[in-house]
């Protein structure tokens, strides 16, 4: 089927209109309408600059700027008819502007192209998402600090290989995630700084012969400066890739914590109880309370990393400058950003609501020979043994306890001395989990004093 109508925006050299399938593959309005606010802000800044430079009249600029506000409110109130024939948000906005203000609308596109326009709009959108991610990550960190403060000295098993390793404190474990999520904040902050250069005025690719002021439009849109090479300005999508990379690492961190929550809320662990508000039931098993939010958060890294890989593949091998391939940049970023924000909000809610079971944490910490390293360290300190020998002696005591079906502190002194005659009953003082964690005073260690000091640091940093 062929539409005989010429495209009103670029149809001058065409005798025939696009095939319906051409229109379908070409149009981006179904998704890039999300850029409407950025598009209108960019156009308003551009019009003001054109007038200030004497390129269009003040009267036309005023009509354009006011007309764009009308378009904005039409879109925001749901009174705007988006048209596929008009391809994208840029042409939809301009065509509607023309209906509202007439001839001056045709002057808005002086000294610019959709290539610099879309690069600017999309940067503004991604920049906002960086800010949003930083805000949501900070809120999540505060929720984790709250958990850490409540249980700074609660003892739980620390794991390696998901096997009991050494006792640690709940507060310390919570703060490990604060470290991770604060590095994510750093990545979004760095990416934002790097992307904060304005492509507008690069025009199609080569710059323009009109005497524009790119510094003025850059400043009006909150950019630090105009992008310095017009070819790079219209063809660069690093800002979107950096956002996706930061998002993928954040989602990976979220997935690790989500996995712990799934394990910890199981009947076999019972380390935490998730609130009803962040759990779901089963339609067949009445007893079930499922950690669905945690599971979905655990899964989000798949689509977010997929978006990162997907856009990398779109950009790979593209010659300078703009190619229509690059229209495929948006849906992946939109989807990744939506899901990242949702996952961050859900995680924050879960963390704020969840209650750790102090007694179960301590019980688990006290089993599994978690203080074996403390015993070995004591043999080194008290008896002057080389650590390797101490390790071996402790190992034999673990084997003895395992055979008896008890834990290390349950072995009597005679049994202890059968492994090394020099052992005294002072050894029992290091076998308790509270002494164990309290002794780990090295900077960054799990001792409650260390945890409390780090909590104070984080409160100051996150405030
Ligand atoms: N819809 C396009 C995109 O998203 C806008 C830029 C179109 N430029 C062009 N020369 N066809 O990339």
Automatic annotation (TrEMBL):
UniProt cross-references to Gene3D superfamilies, sorted A to Z: Fumarase/aspartase (C-terminal domain) (1.10.40.30), Fumarase/aspartase (Central domain) (1.20.200.10), Fumarase/aspartase (N-terminal domain) (1.10.275.10)
Keywords in alphabetical order: Amino-acid biosynthesis, Arginine biosynthesis, Cytoplasm, Lyase
Argininosuccinate lyase C-terminal domain ranges (all copies): 369-438
InterPro entries for this protein: Arg_succ_lyase_C, Argininosuccinate_lyase, Fumarase/histidase_N, Fumarate_lyase_CS, Fumarate_lyase_fam, Fumarate_lyase_N, L-Aspartase-like
Name listed for the protein in its UniProt record: Argininosuccinate lyase
E.C. number(s) listed in UniProt: 4.3.2.1
Catalyzed reaction equations: 2-(N(omega)-L-arginino)succinate = fumarate + L-arginine
Principal EC category: lyase
Localisation per UniProt entry: Cytoplasm
Family named by the database record: Belongs to the lyase 1 family. Argininosuccinate lyase subfamily.
GO molecular function, one term: argininosuccinate lyase activity
Pfam hit, one: ASL_C2
Domain Fumarate lyase N-terminal: from-to ranges: 12-306
């Amino acid at each position: 089927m062929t539409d005989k109508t010429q495209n009103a925006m670029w149809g001058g050299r065409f005798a025939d209109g696009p095939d319906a399938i051409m229109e379908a593959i070409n149009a981006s309005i179904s998704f890039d309408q999300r850029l409407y606010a950025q598009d209108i802000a960019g156009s308003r800044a551009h019009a003001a600059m054109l007038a200030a430079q004497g390129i269009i009249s003040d009267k036309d600029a005023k009509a354009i700027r006011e007309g764009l506000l009308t378009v904005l409110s039409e879109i925001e109130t749901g009174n705007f008819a988006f048209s596929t024939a008009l391809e994208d948000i840029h042409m939809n906005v301009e065509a509607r502007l023309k209906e509202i203000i007439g001839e001056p609308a045709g002057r808005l596109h002086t000294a610019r192209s959709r290539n610099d326009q879309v690069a600017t709009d999309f940067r503004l959108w991604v920049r906002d998402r960086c800010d949003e991610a930083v805000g949501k990550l900070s809120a999540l960190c505060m929720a984790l600090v709250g958990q850490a403060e409540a249980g700074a000295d609660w003892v739980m098993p620390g794991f390696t290989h998901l096997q009991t390793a050494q006792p640690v404190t709940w507060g310390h474990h919570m703060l490990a995630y604060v470290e991770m999520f604060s590095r994510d904040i750093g990545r979004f902050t760095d990416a934002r700084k790097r992307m904060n250069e304005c492509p507008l005025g690069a025009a199609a690719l080569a710059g323009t012969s009109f005497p524009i002021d790119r510094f003025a439009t850059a400043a009006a849109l909150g950019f630090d400066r105009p992008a310095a090479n017009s070819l790079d300005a219209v063809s660069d999508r690093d800002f979107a890739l950096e956002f996706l990379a930061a998002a993928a690492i954040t989602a990976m961190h979220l997935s690790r914590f989500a996995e712990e929550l799934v394990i910890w809320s199981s009947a076999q662990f019972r380390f935490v109880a998730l609130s009803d508000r962040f759990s779901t039931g089963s339609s067949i098993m009445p007893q079930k309370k499922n950690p669905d939010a945690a599971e979905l958060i655990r899964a989000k890294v798949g689509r977010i990393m997929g978006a990162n890989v997907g856009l990398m593949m779109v950009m790979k091998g593209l010659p300078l400058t703009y190619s229509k391939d690059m229209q495929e940049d948006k849906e992946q970023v939109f989807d990744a950003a939506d899901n990242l924000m949702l996952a961050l909000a859900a995680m924050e809610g879960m963390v704020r609501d969840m209650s750790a079971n102090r007694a179960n944490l301590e019980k688990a910490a006290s089993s599994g020979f978690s203080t074996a390293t403390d015993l070995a360290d004591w043999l080194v300190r008290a008896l002057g043994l080389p650590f390797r020998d101490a390790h071996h002696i402790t190992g034999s005591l673990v084997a003895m306890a395992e055979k008896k079906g008890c834990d290390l502190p349950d072995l009597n002194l005679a049994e202890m001395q059968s492994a090394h005659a020099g052992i005294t009953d002072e050894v029992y003082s290091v076998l308790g989990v509270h002494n164990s964690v309290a002794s780990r005073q090295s900077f960054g260690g799990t001792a409650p004093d260390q945890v409390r000091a780090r909590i104070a640091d984080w409160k100051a940093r996150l405030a």
